[in-house]
Amino acid sequence: MPFSKKQQEFFDNCSHRWNIKVGATRSGKTYGDYYWIPKRIRNRINKEGASVILGVSKSTIERNILEPMRIKWGQDLVRSISTDNTCYLFGERVHCLGAEKVSQVSKIRGMSIKYCYGDEVAEWNKEVFELLKSRLDKPYSCFDGALNPEGPNHWLKAFLDSDADIYQQHYTIFENPFLPEEFVEQLCKEYEGTVYYDRYILGNWALAEGLIFPMYEDAIADVVNGGEPEEYCLSIDYGTMNAFAAILWGKYGDTWYGLKELYYSGRDTGIQKTDSEYAEMLDEFVGSLEDLETIIDPSAASFITLLRRKGKGKYRVKKANNDVENGIEETARALKIGLIKVSKSMKNWKTEAGGYIWKPDAPKDEPVKVNDHLMDATRYFVKTKRIVEEYDDDYKSPFNRANLNATDAERVRRYVGGFAGAGGMENYQSYKSYKSPFGRRY
Question: What is the reported pTM?
Answer without folding.
Answer: 0.72
